[in-house]
Amino acid sequence: MFINQTRAQGDTHWIIVENICSYGCGLDVNGDGSLPGAVNGYPTVTDPAGHVFISLHSYLDNPILWTYTGADAYARGYYDTVLAGIAKTGWPALNTEGGADAFVGVGGPNATLTGSAGYSNITLRFIQTLTNLYDSASTRIGYTWWTAGDWTNTPGAGSLGALQCNSKPQGWGCLLKNKPIPPTEPPKPPPLVTYTLSFEGYDYDGAGEETLRLNSNSLATLPISNSPMNAGLYRTFTLNITSFIVQGNNTLTFTHTKWDCGMVDGTKNVTITDPTGKVIFSDPALRPLSCTQSITYTFTIKSTSPTVAIPAALNFTTSPALAQTGTPTATSGQTFLISSKSVTTSPTTPYRAFSFQGTLATRP
Fold first, then answer.
1. Of 75, 117, 151, 205, whose CB count within 10 A is highest?
2. CA dihedral of residues 6, 7, 11, 17 (deg, nearest 10)
3. Domain spans of the chain, in order of start
4. How far is residue 115's CA from residue 334's CA, in Å, rounded to a whole number?
Protein backbone atom coordinates (compact mmCIF):
# COMPACT_ATOMS: atom_id res chain seq x y z
CA MET A 1 0.00 0.00 0.00
CA PHE A 2 2.71 2.49 1.02
CA ILE A 3 4.82 1.78 -2.06
CA ASN A 4 1.83 2.13 -4.40
CA GLN A 5 0.77 5.42 -2.79
CA THR A 6 4.31 6.77 -2.97
CA ARG A 7 4.75 5.87 -6.63
CA ALA A 8 1.32 7.26 -7.49
CA GLN A 9 2.59 10.65 -6.27
CA GLY A 10 5.50 10.44 -8.71
CA ASP A 11 8.12 9.72 -6.03
CA THR A 12 10.80 7.31 -7.28
CA HIS A 13 13.13 7.39 -4.25
CA TRP A 14 14.48 4.09 -2.98
CA ILE A 15 12.43 2.41 -0.23
CA ILE A 16 13.93 0.16 2.46
CA VAL A 17 11.90 -2.88 3.51
CA GLU A 18 12.91 -4.31 6.89
CA ASN A 19 13.08 -7.96 7.95
CA ILE A 20 10.74 -8.43 10.91
CA CYS A 21 13.50 -10.31 12.74
CA SER A 22 15.33 -7.01 13.08
CA TYR A 23 13.03 -6.38 16.08
CA GLY A 24 12.74 -9.95 17.32
CA CYS A 25 10.81 -12.75 15.70
CA GLY A 26 9.85 -16.36 16.24
CA LEU A 27 11.22 -17.60 12.92
CA ASP A 28 14.42 -19.01 14.41
CA VAL A 29 15.66 -20.00 17.83
CA ASN A 30 17.72 -16.84 18.30
CA GLY A 31 14.86 -14.67 17.06
CA ASP A 32 17.24 -12.10 15.57
CA GLY A 33 18.00 -13.06 11.97
CA SER A 34 21.18 -15.03 12.59
CA LEU A 35 19.69 -18.44 11.66
CA PRO A 36 18.23 -19.71 8.35
CA GLY A 37 14.55 -19.36 9.30
CA ALA A 38 14.93 -15.58 9.37
CA VAL A 39 14.86 -15.41 5.57
CA ASN A 40 11.08 -15.73 5.85
CA GLY A 41 11.03 -12.44 7.74
CA TYR A 42 11.55 -10.43 4.55
CA PRO A 43 8.21 -9.05 3.30
CA THR A 44 7.22 -9.76 -0.28
CA VAL A 45 6.71 -6.47 -2.10
CA THR A 46 6.50 -5.19 -5.64
CA ASP A 47 7.57 -1.79 -6.89
CA PRO A 48 6.88 -0.40 -10.37
CA ALA A 49 9.96 1.83 -9.98
CA GLY A 50 12.18 -1.12 -9.06
CA HIS A 51 13.73 0.88 -6.18
CA VAL A 52 13.62 -1.38 -3.13
CA PHE A 53 16.33 -2.40 -0.66
CA ILE A 54 15.91 -5.14 1.92
CA SER A 55 17.43 -4.67 5.37
CA LEU A 56 18.28 -6.72 8.45
CA HIS A 57 19.52 -5.26 11.74
CA SER A 58 22.51 -7.18 13.04
CA TYR A 59 23.83 -7.44 16.60
CA LEU A 60 25.60 -10.13 18.62
CA ASP A 61 22.65 -10.98 20.83
CA ASN A 62 22.93 -14.60 21.90
CA PRO A 63 26.03 -16.48 20.77
CA ILE A 64 26.64 -20.04 21.83
CA LEU A 65 30.11 -19.03 22.99
CA TRP A 66 31.39 -15.54 23.87
CA THR A 67 34.56 -16.14 21.91
CA TYR A 68 36.01 -14.90 18.65
CA THR A 69 34.95 -18.18 17.06
CA GLY A 70 31.41 -17.73 18.34
CA ALA A 71 31.32 -14.12 17.13
CA ASP A 72 32.51 -15.18 13.67
CA ALA A 73 29.83 -17.88 13.43
CA TYR A 74 27.13 -15.42 14.47
CA ALA A 75 28.27 -12.93 11.83
CA ARG A 76 28.23 -15.68 9.22
CA GLY A 77 24.64 -16.49 10.18
CA TYR A 78 23.49 -12.92 9.48
CA TYR A 79 25.44 -12.86 6.23
CA ASP A 80 23.83 -16.10 5.04
CA THR A 81 20.36 -14.76 5.88
CA VAL A 82 20.99 -11.60 3.83
CA LEU A 83 22.27 -13.59 0.85
CA ALA A 84 19.21 -15.83 1.03
CA GLY A 85 16.97 -12.75 1.26
CA ILE A 86 18.53 -11.23 -1.86
CA ALA A 87 18.00 -14.49 -3.74
CA LYS A 88 14.41 -14.88 -2.50
CA THR A 89 13.16 -11.32 -3.04
CA GLY A 90 15.27 -10.26 -6.01
CA TRP A 91 16.08 -6.96 -4.27
CA PRO A 92 19.55 -5.70 -3.26
CA ALA A 93 20.38 -5.26 0.42
CA LEU A 94 21.16 -2.12 2.40
CA ASN A 95 21.28 -3.11 6.06
CA THR A 96 20.36 0.01 7.98
CA GLU A 97 21.47 -0.90 11.47
CA GLY A 98 24.00 -3.06 13.23
CA GLY A 99 27.00 -2.67 15.46
CA ALA A 100 29.11 -3.69 18.42
CA ASP A 101 26.62 -2.72 21.11
CA ALA A 102 27.56 -4.76 24.16
CA PHE A 103 24.32 -6.66 24.68
CA VAL A 104 26.10 -8.97 27.04
CA GLY A 105 24.25 -12.05 28.22
CA VAL A 106 25.20 -14.54 30.88
CA GLY A 107 28.90 -15.33 30.74
CA GLY A 108 29.68 -12.45 28.40
CA PRO A 109 32.84 -10.36 28.64
CA ASN A 110 33.06 -7.04 30.37
CA ALA A 111 32.35 -4.04 28.18
CA THR A 112 35.31 -2.03 26.94
CA LEU A 113 32.95 0.95 26.74
CA THR A 114 29.47 0.95 28.21
CA GLY A 115 26.31 2.56 26.94
CA SER A 116 24.50 2.51 23.62
CA ALA A 117 27.69 3.32 21.70
CA GLY A 118 29.75 0.88 23.73
CA TYR A 119 31.35 -2.44 22.86
CA SER A 120 33.36 -5.38 24.08
CA ASN A 121 36.24 -7.12 22.37
CA ILE A 122 33.87 -9.92 21.30
CA THR A 123 31.16 -7.66 19.89
CA LEU A 124 33.82 -5.65 18.04
CA ARG A 125 35.07 -8.92 16.54
CA PHE A 126 31.50 -9.74 15.47
CA ILE A 127 30.86 -6.47 13.65
CA GLN A 128 34.32 -6.53 12.05
CA THR A 129 33.71 -10.02 10.68
CA LEU A 130 30.26 -9.07 9.36
CA THR A 131 31.74 -5.94 7.75
CA ASN A 132 34.42 -8.04 6.08
CA LEU A 133 31.80 -10.46 4.73
CA TYR A 134 29.61 -7.67 3.31
CA ASP A 135 32.61 -5.90 1.78
CA SER A 136 33.88 -9.08 0.14
CA ALA A 137 30.59 -10.30 -1.32
CA SER A 138 30.61 -10.83 -5.08
CA THR A 139 28.09 -7.99 -5.25
CA ARG A 140 29.04 -5.76 -2.34
CA ILE A 141 26.33 -5.53 0.34
CA GLY A 142 25.48 -2.14 1.77
CA TYR A 143 25.29 -1.33 5.47
CA THR A 144 25.13 1.53 7.99
CA TRP A 145 26.26 0.87 11.56
CA TRP A 146 24.88 2.18 14.85
CA THR A 147 25.32 4.49 16.56
CA ALA A 148 26.46 8.10 16.37
CA GLY A 149 24.57 10.86 18.15
CA ASP A 150 24.65 13.22 21.10
CA TRP A 151 22.05 11.20 22.97
CA THR A 152 24.23 8.17 23.64
CA ASN A 153 25.09 7.40 27.25
CA THR A 154 28.59 6.14 26.46
CA PRO A 155 31.21 7.96 28.60
CA GLY A 156 33.20 10.50 26.61
CA ALA A 157 31.33 9.82 23.39
CA GLY A 158 29.87 13.30 23.09
CA SER A 159 27.94 13.94 19.90
CA LEU A 160 29.94 11.39 17.89
CA GLY A 161 28.89 8.21 19.67
CA ALA A 162 30.79 5.21 18.37
CA LEU A 163 32.81 7.53 16.11
CA GLN A 164 34.42 9.34 19.04
CA CYS A 165 38.13 8.80 18.43
CA ASN A 166 39.37 11.07 21.23
CA SER A 167 37.88 9.07 24.07
CA LYS A 168 39.88 6.57 26.05
CA PRO A 169 39.30 3.92 24.97
CA GLN A 170 38.30 5.01 21.49
CA GLY A 171 34.86 4.42 20.09
CA TRP A 172 34.57 1.19 18.16
CA GLY A 173 33.78 3.02 14.92
CA CYS A 174 37.34 4.34 14.97
CA LEU A 175 38.71 0.82 15.25
CA LEU A 176 36.57 -0.77 12.55
CA LYS A 177 38.32 -1.58 9.28
CA ASN A 178 36.40 -1.60 6.04
CA LYS A 179 37.31 -2.11 2.42
CA PRO A 180 37.60 1.25 0.70
CA ILE A 181 35.27 1.86 -2.19
CA PRO A 182 37.38 2.38 -5.30
CA PRO A 183 37.15 5.95 -6.56
CA THR A 184 34.77 6.34 -9.43
CA GLU A 185 36.58 7.44 -12.52
CA PRO A 186 34.88 10.30 -14.30
CA PRO A 187 33.24 9.12 -17.48
CA LYS A 188 35.60 9.23 -20.37
CA PRO A 189 34.56 11.60 -23.10
CA PRO A 190 33.49 9.88 -26.26
CA PRO A 191 36.28 9.52 -28.76
CA LEU A 192 36.54 12.43 -31.09
CA VAL A 193 34.73 11.72 -34.31
CA THR A 194 37.00 12.99 -37.03
CA TYR A 195 36.84 12.77 -40.80
CA THR A 196 40.15 13.68 -42.36
CA LEU A 197 40.98 14.85 -45.87
CA SER A 198 44.54 14.61 -47.14
CA PHE A 199 45.95 15.26 -50.60
CA GLU A 200 48.99 16.42 -52.50
CA GLY A 201 48.77 19.82 -54.13
CA TYR A 202 51.09 20.83 -56.94
CA ASP A 203 52.33 24.42 -57.16
CA TYR A 204 50.18 25.63 -54.28
CA ASP A 205 52.38 28.68 -53.79
CA GLY A 206 50.23 31.83 -53.77
CA ALA A 207 48.33 32.80 -50.62
CA GLY A 208 44.69 31.69 -50.98
CA GLU A 209 45.29 30.45 -54.51
CA GLU A 210 43.10 27.36 -54.09
CA THR A 211 39.66 27.27 -52.44
CA LEU A 212 38.17 24.07 -51.03
CA ARG A 213 34.45 23.78 -50.30
CA LEU A 214 32.59 20.85 -48.76
CA ASN A 215 28.85 20.74 -49.31
CA SER A 216 28.97 24.42 -50.32
CA ASN A 217 30.69 25.35 -47.04
CA SER A 218 34.04 27.07 -47.16
CA LEU A 219 36.54 24.50 -45.94
CA ALA A 220 39.93 26.17 -46.56
CA THR A 221 41.89 28.54 -48.78
CA LEU A 222 45.36 27.24 -49.47
CA PRO A 223 48.07 27.98 -48.85
CA ILE A 224 47.35 30.26 -45.93
CA SER A 225 50.26 32.55 -46.86
CA ASN A 226 52.57 33.12 -49.80
CA SER A 227 54.67 29.99 -50.12
CA PRO A 228 57.22 30.37 -52.92
CA MET A 229 58.92 27.23 -51.68
CA ASN A 230 55.91 25.27 -53.02
CA ALA A 231 56.40 26.46 -56.59
CA GLY A 232 56.66 23.52 -58.96
CA LEU A 233 56.48 21.01 -56.11
CA TYR A 234 53.98 18.73 -54.47
CA ARG A 235 53.04 19.53 -50.89
CA THR A 236 50.84 17.38 -48.65
CA PHE A 237 47.84 19.02 -46.97
CA THR A 238 45.69 17.49 -44.22
CA LEU A 239 42.36 18.96 -43.10
CA ASN A 240 39.74 18.04 -40.49
CA ILE A 241 36.48 18.06 -42.45
CA THR A 242 34.19 16.71 -39.70
CA SER A 243 32.17 19.90 -39.19
CA PHE A 244 30.80 19.87 -42.72
CA ILE A 245 30.19 16.14 -43.17
CA VAL A 246 26.55 15.16 -43.72
CA GLN A 247 24.81 11.82 -43.94
CA GLY A 248 24.24 10.84 -47.52
CA ASN A 249 26.06 12.37 -50.47
CA ASN A 250 28.92 14.79 -49.82
CA THR A 251 30.50 17.04 -52.44
CA LEU A 252 34.07 18.33 -52.22
CA THR A 253 35.25 20.96 -54.72
CA PHE A 254 38.61 22.54 -55.51
CA THR A 255 38.67 25.85 -57.40
CA HIS A 256 41.53 28.10 -58.48
CA THR A 257 41.54 31.84 -57.92
CA LYS A 258 41.23 34.14 -60.94
CA TRP A 259 44.83 35.21 -60.87
CA ASP A 260 47.99 33.36 -61.90
CA CYS A 261 45.83 31.99 -64.70
CA GLY A 262 48.79 31.14 -66.89
CA MET A 263 49.70 28.34 -64.49
CA VAL A 264 47.95 24.99 -64.20
CA ASP A 265 48.22 23.61 -60.70
CA GLY A 266 47.32 20.03 -59.79
CA THR A 267 45.86 17.80 -57.10
CA LYS A 268 46.44 14.08 -56.58
CA ASN A 269 46.31 11.31 -53.98
CA VAL A 270 43.09 12.60 -52.48
CA THR A 271 42.16 10.47 -49.47
CA ILE A 272 39.32 10.71 -46.95
CA THR A 273 39.35 8.63 -43.75
CA ASP A 274 36.50 8.00 -41.33
CA PRO A 275 36.66 8.18 -37.50
CA THR A 276 38.14 4.67 -37.32
CA GLY A 277 40.96 5.61 -39.66
CA LYS A 278 39.48 3.58 -42.48
CA VAL A 279 39.98 5.01 -45.95
CA ILE A 280 36.53 5.66 -47.36
CA PHE A 281 37.53 7.53 -50.49
CA SER A 282 40.73 7.55 -52.50
CA ASP A 283 41.63 9.02 -55.85
CA PRO A 284 45.33 8.81 -56.66
CA ALA A 285 44.97 10.42 -60.08
CA LEU A 286 46.48 13.79 -60.89
CA ARG A 287 43.71 16.31 -61.64
CA PRO A 288 44.45 19.71 -63.24
CA LEU A 289 43.36 22.80 -61.33
CA SER A 290 43.39 26.25 -62.94
CA CYS A 291 41.36 29.38 -63.56
CA THR A 292 39.29 27.41 -66.06
CA GLN A 293 39.40 23.99 -64.42
CA SER A 294 37.86 22.96 -61.10
CA ILE A 295 37.74 19.54 -59.44
CA THR A 296 34.74 17.87 -57.82
CA TYR A 297 34.75 14.71 -55.71
CA THR A 298 31.72 13.01 -54.18
CA PHE A 299 31.49 10.43 -51.39
CA THR A 300 28.70 8.96 -49.30
CA ILE A 301 28.17 8.76 -45.54
CA LYS A 302 25.71 6.10 -44.42
CA SER A 303 23.54 6.73 -41.37
CA THR A 304 24.70 3.71 -39.34
CA SER A 305 28.35 3.40 -40.25
CA PRO A 306 30.95 5.96 -40.73
CA THR A 307 30.98 5.67 -44.49
CA VAL A 308 30.96 3.71 -47.67
CA ALA A 309 32.94 5.03 -50.58
CA ILE A 310 31.72 5.25 -54.14
CA PRO A 311 34.32 4.00 -56.64
CA ALA A 312 36.80 6.72 -57.45
CA ALA A 313 35.96 6.71 -61.13
CA LEU A 314 32.46 7.91 -60.28
CA ASN A 315 33.61 10.53 -57.85
CA PHE A 316 35.52 12.96 -60.01
CA THR A 317 34.55 15.58 -62.52
CA THR A 318 36.33 18.54 -64.05
CA SER A 319 34.90 21.68 -65.48
CA PRO A 320 35.65 22.35 -68.28
CA ALA A 321 37.49 19.30 -69.59
CA LEU A 322 40.94 20.21 -70.82
CA ALA A 323 44.02 18.18 -71.55
CA GLN A 324 45.50 16.81 -68.35
CA THR A 325 48.60 18.60 -67.20
CA GLY A 326 51.48 16.48 -66.01
CA THR A 327 53.68 17.26 -63.04
CA PRO A 328 57.25 16.53 -62.06
CA THR A 329 58.31 13.56 -59.99
CA ALA A 330 60.10 14.35 -56.78
CA THR A 331 63.54 12.98 -57.60
CA SER A 332 63.73 12.27 -61.33
CA GLY A 333 63.73 14.59 -64.31
CA GLN A 334 60.56 16.63 -64.65
CA THR A 335 58.11 14.52 -66.65
CA PHE A 336 54.89 16.14 -67.85
CA LEU A 337 51.98 14.30 -69.38
CA ILE A 338 50.18 16.16 -72.15
CA SER A 339 47.39 14.14 -73.64
CA SER A 340 49.19 10.88 -74.45
CA LYS A 341 52.68 12.33 -74.89
CA SER A 342 55.43 12.78 -72.37
CA VAL A 343 58.29 15.24 -72.30
CA THR A 344 61.24 15.07 -69.95
CA THR A 345 63.37 18.04 -69.02
CA SER A 346 66.67 18.16 -67.24
CA PRO A 347 66.32 17.41 -63.52
CA THR A 348 68.47 20.45 -62.74
CA THR A 349 66.43 22.94 -64.76
CA PRO A 350 64.22 25.25 -62.68
CA TYR A 351 60.70 25.20 -64.03
CA ARG A 352 57.20 26.46 -63.89
CA ALA A 353 54.81 24.26 -65.82
CA PHE A 354 51.63 25.27 -67.57
CA SER A 355 49.53 23.81 -70.36
CA PHE A 356 47.80 25.47 -73.26
CA GLN A 357 45.81 22.97 -75.37
CA GLY A 358 48.52 20.33 -75.44
CA THR A 359 51.62 22.53 -75.52
CA LEU A 360 54.25 22.63 -72.83
CA ALA A 361 56.42 25.52 -71.86
CA THR A 362 58.91 26.12 -69.05
CA ARG A 363 60.01 29.35 -67.53
CA PRO A 364 63.03 29.88 -65.33
1. 117
2. 60
3. 2-175, 196-323
4. 99
